Amino acid sequence: MLRVDHPRFQSALREIEDSLDAAWKTLCAESDVTPGTPEARDLAAVVLQDTSEFDWRVVDGALKQLTCTECGSGLGAGPLGCTACDLANGFRFAARETDRPGAAPNNEHAVRVASAVARTRHRYTPRARAGYEIALPGLLAGQIPTTPQAQRAKDRINQLSDQELDQLIDPEVLL
């Protein structure tokens, strides 16, 4: 079974998508804008003008509302080399990160990076995908690996073939 087909990964991805949708709906409600309307797309464009003013989930929610005029993909999710998507993908990393209650410090940064990789996996290497995707469920549960754990995992990931990486599911084999 491939990692991306495993229920653990699918559940984590759904949790992320649901949190992005909820953040976007909250901003729309606060702005008196109906989601899915032209006004909501205008609001998304406003969010992207200064992403540092918003939580990363709102920014990712805004990106989901827009289509790239260059490649036709969701903005920020197109192929590497699409200038508009490359730029928009970078916007997500200028947004605010607020650690969630009960989560380890800096966990939210790890969740943001891991979710960006998992949601736009074609933009990242097989090794980056394996590391972040396998960690995502634990990160969502508020965990964060120690530096030595992350270094061991990276070392083990670097020893695997692309096919072995795609079949990597259990994070315990890396620690």
Q: So how many helices?
A: 8
* Computed structural class: mainly alpha
Sheet with most strands? none
Mean pLDDT: 95
As a percent range, the share of strand residues is under 5%
The succession of helices and strands, N to C, reads HHHHHHHH
Please mark out the parts with pLDDT under 50 across 5 or more consecutive residues, or reply none: none
| Gyration radius over CA | 17 Å
The helix content, as a percent range, equals: 55-70%
How many beta-strand segments? 0
In angstroms, what separates the terminal alpha carbons?
21 Å
Overall geometric form:
globular
Write a structural description.
There is one protein chain. The protein is mainly alpha-helical and 175 residues long. It is 56% helix and 0% strand. It is built from 8 helices and no strands. Helix 1 packs across helix 3, helix 2 crosses helix 3 and helix 5 crosses helix 6. The radius of gyration is 17 Å and the shape is globular. The two termini are 21 Å apart. The mean pLDDT is 95.
Summarize the structure.
With 175 residues, this protein is mainly alpha-helical. The chain has eight helices and no strands.
List keywords for this structure.
about 55% helix; mainly alpha; 8 helices; about 180 residues
